[in-house]
Description:
The protein is of the alpha/beta class. Helix content is 28%, strand content 21%.
Amino acid sequence: MITVHGLLGRPSDELRADAADADWVVGGRRHLDTIGVPAGQRIVLGGLQAAIEQVRALPESARIVVVASGDPLYFGVVRALRAAGLRPAVVPAVSSIAAAFAAVGLPWDDAAVVSVHGRPLEPAVELARTVGKAAVFTSPEHGIRELAAGLAGLDRWFVLAERLGEPDEQVRVLTAGQAAQAEPRQPNVVLILDRHPDSPDAPWPGSVAGPANPSHHPTSGGQQ
């Protein structure tokens, strides 16, 4: 049996108990260290597909816990597990995107979301040019500075939400110039807005915004 737990910040008692009872626990090294998983029960996430192949090779009777950042159903690992023919139980957590919008008090039902985690930067830049409220799952090589450079000359505000849920969490509202010079800490997500978060909201369109191009949606595990 495979159970995927979302994690944003402090591990829940349920996650700790499930991990303690599991034969194997899959996750990033920092998550496994936080939960205190013994070395002999770990599958450390490096490449996602390599970890999934390890999971597929385990006996069907094995009790496996997968620890994923944020909501594992939203730009997360569950999509990749299902694509590999696995059908896990899921215990979700708050998405880092939802947490970032909450940090600045903005509704996000009208936001478009895109991931550049292991994907090209250009679709995210294109999206942020055409919508007033975009959220980006970043990566170390495709982050706020690259987004700001791609949007140079466009009037946008940037929200840099770093290490959400951790004791050293930080959320900064930046101008385009500040965003281009920012030194982000990992992990982080970025909101790109056509107005300051404290400004009046744009009229709600009554539908969920999103990329027009299906290629903007994830085909494997996402981030945070």
